[in-house]
């Protein structure tokens, strides 16, 4: 069974939390997790992220059981694309929301098998046996510069435009969703997060924290959050953890501030 926890914090600088995070067990045995990081200023960013999460969760709530990974992955992709339509239409119809958008990273699991869909620079990581692997590839200016060898990894970490995304949900009528298959074995953890975590907490710190088996899953998530806050907390911070267990227990917690 999957144990889950999610946390979101406004950080030390921002006055509004434009992130929206949701994890829960759906009908027919699926587990869905979503992290969205809104943008647009004023109230537009939090409207965009909330609309995206609401649309995705609503579209997948009645998913029939017994679907193959390919089929329920396609349903996740369609739900994300529908969220793009909803956010784009809202931004087009209301001047105060013009140009708003959001990143999104979402996972849909059935048992040990699942699919990850993402747009933007919110990330998915997989932790296993003392190692962490980033599953998603940022749609960001800095990542494009890094892949073309125009900047180094060290420069990317401090680049003044590291928050600029090259692809977002809701800013254009059409958008592509990157999809990746994932398998979660017992003891392995899937981490979804906004860049408020990944820009301030290193993969090495994530690995050490997630490997603290003596800490409850919630406490490990909270420790990651506190690390981001202590590193500056200049952005909203959102974290979702999904841990695979052999036992029959499962549950979801949340904590927001």
From TrEMBL:
Pfam families, per database record: PP2C_2 (PF13672)
Domain PPM-type phosphatase intervals: 3-244
Annotated coiled-coil segments of the chain: none
GO MF entry, a single one: protein serine/threonine phosphatase activity
InterPro entries: PP2C (IPR015655), PPM-type-like_dom_sf (IPR036457), PPM-type_phosphatase-like_dom (IPR001932)
NCBIfam families assigned: Stp1_PP2C_phos (NF033484)
Protein's name according to its UniProt entry: Stage II sporulation E family protein
Organism annotation: Paenibacillus macerans (Bacillus macerans)
């Amino acid at each position: 069974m999957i144990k889950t926890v999610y946390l979101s914090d406004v950080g030390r600088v921002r006055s509004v939390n434009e992130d929206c995070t949701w994890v829960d067990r759906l009908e027919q045995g699926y587990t869905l997790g979503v992290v969205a990081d809104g943008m647009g200023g004023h109230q537009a960013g939090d409207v965009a992220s909330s609309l995206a999460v609401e649309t995705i969760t609503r579209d997948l709530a009645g998913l029939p059981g017994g679907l193959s990974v390919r089929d329920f992955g396609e349903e996740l992709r369609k739900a994300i694309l529908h969220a793009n339509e909803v956010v784009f239409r809202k931004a087009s119809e209301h001047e105060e929301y013009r140009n708003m958008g959001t990143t999104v990273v979402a996972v849909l699991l059935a048992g040990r098998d699942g699919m990850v869909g993402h747009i933007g620079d919110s990330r998915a990581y997989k932790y296993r046996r003392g190692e962490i692997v980033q599953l998603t590839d940022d749609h960001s200016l800095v990542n494009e510069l890094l892949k073309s060898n125009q900047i180094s990894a060290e420069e990317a970490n401090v680049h003044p435009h590291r928050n600029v995304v090259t692809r977002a949900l809701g800013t254009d009528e059409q958008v592509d969703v990157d999809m990746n298959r994932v398998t979660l074995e017992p003891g392995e953890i899937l981490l979804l997060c906004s860049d408020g975590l990944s820009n301030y907490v290193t993969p090495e710190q994530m690995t050490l924290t997630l490997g603290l088996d003596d800490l409850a899953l919630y406490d490990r998530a909270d420790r990651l959050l506190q690390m981001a806050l202590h590193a500056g907390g200049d952005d909203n911070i959102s974290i979702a953890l999904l841990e695979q267990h052999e036992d029959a227990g499962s549950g979801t917690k949340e904590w927001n501030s």
